[in-house]
User: What shape does this take?
Amino acid sequence: MTTEKLKELLNDMSLDEKIGQMLQVSGLFYGDDDALTTGGLDYFKATDEEKLRAGSILSISGAEKLKKLQTRLMEKQPHHIPQIFMLDIINGYETIFPVPLAQGASFNPDMAEKCAQVAAKEGAAAGIHVTFSPMADLCRDGRWGRVMEGYGEDSYLNSKMSISTVRGYQGKDIKEKGNLAACVKHFAAYGGGEAGRDYDTVEVSERTLRESFLPAYKACIDENVKLVMTSFNTLNQVPSTANKWLMKDVLRDEMKFDGVLISDYGAVKELVPHGIARDEKEAALLAVNAGVDIDMMSLAYIRNIKSLIKEGKLSQSQIDDSVWKILCLKNELGLFENPYKDADQEEQNRLCLCKEHRELAREAASDSFVLLKNEDTLPLDSSNKKQKIAFIGPFAKSHEVFGSWSFPTDPSKMTSIEEGMKNFTSVNSNVEALFAEGCQLFGHDFKLKDGRRFTYDPAKKEVLLSEALETAKNADKVVLCLGEHQQMTGEAASRTQMTIPEEQMELLRKVSEVNPNVITLVFAGRPLELEEASKLSKALMMVWFPGCETGNAIADVLFGAKEPGGRCPMSFPYRTSQEPCHYNRFRSGRPNNGTLEQGFVMGYIDQIDRTLYPFGYGLTYTNFEYSPVSLNGNELSEGKPLSATVTVKNSGNRKGTETVQMYIQDIYGSTVRPVRTLKGFEKVTLEPGESKNISFEITEEMFRFYDINMNFKSEEGACRVYIGPDCLTENGADFNLI
Ligand code: BGC
Assistant: This one.
C-alpha cells in the first residue's frame, strides 16, 4: 500500500479501531470456528468485542489455522485490517537448534544467521509474521534462568550473535517469502536482576548501562530490527515499560529506533503491582507516555485510552503515532496485499524438520559443545577396536533436550542419544552401545515450570543404580549423561544453586568407582558448578540443550567425525556464590592473585578468586600454538588503526579449528576500566602442522567509553592488546593511544 493510502486509512479509522490496534492478545482465545474463548488464561477477562478489536495475536501458529483465523478476524474489523501473528521462535520453529546460549558458545555468528534463516522459513510457512527474538540481554549471572535465552556475558559477542540472528530472520526485506520481522528484547537490562532473580530490580549505573548492557540492543537497531520489546524489570527504580527517559530519550532519540515498541506480556498492567500506577488507567497513561505502542496481554490500553483522551491526559496524536507505526509494520510485511503472507500448509509440512534443516541443526549442535576437560580420552576410537560404551544417566534416552521455548515441538522428533547411537552403530559394528537410566532426574518431588509434576520414587533408586553399575562394569568406557532439566532454565527458572542435581552426582560418584573411564556430558542452559564432576571424569563436555539432532551430534563428536566447536560464553564458577563472575570486571585497588594467602585483597577467604573455566575457554581435539603478538606500529589514533597479528599453528596431529580471541585493555582512564574486553574473534581451521597468520584491526573507537564527565570518547595513554585462546591469555603487546 502506498504511504498516501496508508495515511488515508489511518485518518479514516475511528478512535476505537485505533486503540484496538494497540492491543495484542493470545491466540488461545480463538477457536477453529466462530467460538472466541477456547479456555485457558481465565484471568484475562477481555470481552469478545475487545478480542475482535485486537490488532495482533501471539502464541498461535500453523498455516491452515492462521489463514482461517485471519479471514475471520479481518471480516470483523471495520477496515478489514489484517492481524500480525507473533510467536516466540527462539531456537527454531520445528527444527530445533541449540539454545541461544549454546549458539553463543559457538562463537559463530554465521551459523546463528543460518539457524535463524531456517527458523524464519519454517515459521513464515506456518503463518507467523514476527518472532520475539533475539534476546539481546547481557547475562552475567548464571543464576538467572534466562541466561539460556541469551548469548552470554560478553557485550561484544552478544552484539555479534544478536545482529546475525536479526539478519537471519529478516533477510533483506521482511516482505520476501520466508522472512520474519524480528523483535529484540527485553529493553533494557533485564539480565541485570539482583542476585539473578527473574523479574527483579535492576540497579545499574548509567555508565555501565550504556557501556555494557545497551550495545547489543543498539546493534540490532542499527541492523534495522523492526520491533523492540520492553522488559519486566525496574531499571534504577523506574519500570522499563513506563520509563520515558529509556524509551524516548535513549531508544527513540539517541538510538533512532522508529519501529514498533511492544510491552512484554502483561507488563503494562504490572505497573500497578510495581506501585507506580494506582490502577490500570494510570498504567496505560504511563506506558503510552513512554511510547509503548502495543499492550501485550493486558486490558489497560483498550479500556482506558479513550477516557484518558477525553480527560485531556493523552492526545489523539500520541495514539496516531503508535497506530501509524503498527500500520507501517503491517504494510512492510505486505499484509494489506497478502494478509496470509507465506502461510502454506504444504510448504510448512515440507520444510519443517526436513533433511536439510536437520543437517544444519546437527552441525550447529557440535559447533556449540564445549570440551572442558580431556585426558587422552576423546575422541573415542571406533576404527578397529571392538568396544562397549555404556550411556548412563537420565539424559541417555531423553527427548527433552530442546530448551524451554519450543512451542510447536513434538519431543518425539528430537533424536535422543540412544537413537543417535543406534544410527551410529548401524554403520559401525565395532561399537556396542549399552544403556541404563542410572537414576531419576531429582532425588525429590519437583514441579516443572510447565506444570508437569515429577514424582520421586524412592523404591526405584537402588534398582536403577545396581543396573547402572552392572552396565558400567561391563563397558570399556562410560558416558554419563547428566544435567539440569530444560524446564530448570528459561523464564521464571532462576536457581540459587547452579548444580547437577545431587541424585545424579551420587550416580556419577558410584559409577566412577566401578569404571574410571568416565566421560561426562552436561545438559544445561547455564554454567554449572563442575569441579567435582570434572575430578571424577576423564573427559567433560557441555552439550547444553542441543536440539533436534542431539543424539547424532553427540555421536559425531564422541567418535571424532566432528570436533566440539564451542567456547565458554560465560565464566564457570567453582561455586554459585561467586556469581556474577564475568571476566571483564573493573580493576580493583586491591587485586587478587588467585590464592587464599593474601590478606586484605578483593575476593573471599574461602574461595580463590578464579573461575573454574574462564570465558572463551574450550578444548579441541588437537593443540594450537600462538606466536607472540606483533603490531604494525606502536601508536593508535582516530582514523589510523593498528593491526595486531599472531601466527597460529596446529601443533597436534588432527585437523582442528581454533577460536582466536582478541581482547583489549585501556591501562589508565578517568574512570576505572575493565581488566580486559573482547573486541574480535575468528575461527580458523588448520591441518596438522599448518600455520596461519591471523590479524585483527584495532581502532580508536574500541577504546571509547563514558569518561568521568559522561562524554563518550577515548582517552590518550597506554593500552594493551591480547590475542589467545581465552580471556586469560597473557599473550599481549603494548601501544599508545594518541
Ligand atoms: C517473555 C517474553 C516473551 C513473551 C511472549 C514473556 O513472558 O518475557 O520473552 O516474548 O512472554 O511470549
In short: The pocket of beta-D-glucopyranose is lined by residues 58-59, 88, 132, 185, 264-265, 491 (CB under 6 Å). The chain has 20 helices and 29 strands.
